[in-house]
Amino acid sequence: MGLIETEGLILKSYSLAEADKIIVFLTQSQGTVRGVAKGAKRLKSKFGGSLEPFSIVQLTYFQKEERELVSIRECELVKSYFESASDPVFLQKFAYIAELLNEFAPPNDPNERLYRMVKVCLETASELKGNLESVVLYFEFWLLRLGGYLPDWSRCDNCKRELEAGEKANLQINFHLLCAVCSKARSKWIITPLQREIFITAQKVSPLKFADLTKDQTIDVREISSVLKKLISNILGREVVGEKTLVVNS
Predict the structure, then answer these.
(1) What is the pLDDT of residues 189-207, one digit of tens each?
(2) Which of 17, 85, 172, 250 is the 20 to 30 Å CA partner of 39?
(3) Which domains does the chain have, with CATH numbers?
(4) pLDDT above 90 as % of the chain
């Protein structure tokens, strides 16, 4: 494939041999890319501080056919979130986001909408200095929607009737909703009208607007995020708990 230039977000890095690093990027035009940064651990490395996680960079790399790891030639820092990442809560939330991206974004499979969504979530979280739970929920919504996994909470899954604004609904095992008439037994998990409103609003506004609208709805944000984490767990075949993915023993 030769030499490729693209903007990218650094998801994670880890050591390779004595002086090198492997860097995982989510790129704007090439999807997820894993590459070797030779000499990155040296004191006078040409990469400097451009390889920190959650940094936006302009990346140049060389890719050979049928090679999983590319060779990183240049990595110019565009935007650093080093200060935000020093906050343990920010670091925890975005480490979770990075892990999910590593699972959901296939290597070398471009998805510019996903890249833009993640980038704006990162920018929003760095500006807010709080209410990160709403930003994470927004990310979960859009990760599932762009992947084609997001259920429709606007109508009953059985009779297909559109649910009314003040109507409660029963959450099914397939994460869709049933109205009270179609549900034979009361579900252990009731989705309230406010929670449905939050669910639908996340698909219509920016993450900054969403965070502002839900700033006083922390409990409902957590409840919906808990549902989506269960859905993500089913998709991945591993449990997602408290912004950490844990392998489920078979």
Answers:
(1) 899 999 999 999 999 999 9
(2) 85
(3) 1-80 (2.40.50.140), 85-250 (1.20.1440.120)
(4) 66
